[in-house]
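Reviewer 2 asked us to include a model.

Predict the structure of this chain.
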Amino acid sequence: MTNLTPTVSASNHIKKWLLFDVRGLPLGRAASKICRYLRGKDKVYFSPNINCGDNVVVINSQEIIMTGKKWTDKIYYSHSEYPGGLKMKSAKFIHDKDPTKLMQMAIQRMLPKNRLARTQMSSLYIYPHEEHPHQGQKPIVVKLD
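Predicted model (structure tokens):
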């Protein structure tokens, strides 16, 4: 008689709703902890090829902090694939234009670069203030230290 390891499939996985308050937390540390829950690595049945992560709501992304001089010295690059198409933006410029963009970029760049990560990113909801439209789902508040 053989013992088979139980595995989870996407159809029998129940997603929870989690709420994270990132007020006053460093960007990278908060993003790495949120990414863990988004991928489902906190579950005992984690499998890297199945979306077993939870729905994640992040509030107060406008009040994140960056240590040192990263607000002015950290540069984000993008390229249009045309000659001379390199664009450089500072973290302060991106944060002033859209307060949720820095958190979204940090979490997205910590996920693997594949189709599964794109479906996991669809379970992420980031809001700049306390208000969010997910009260009906009764999200569980997770404390980040």
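The mean pLDDT is 93. The two ends are 46 Å apart (CA to CA). We have added this to the supplementary material.
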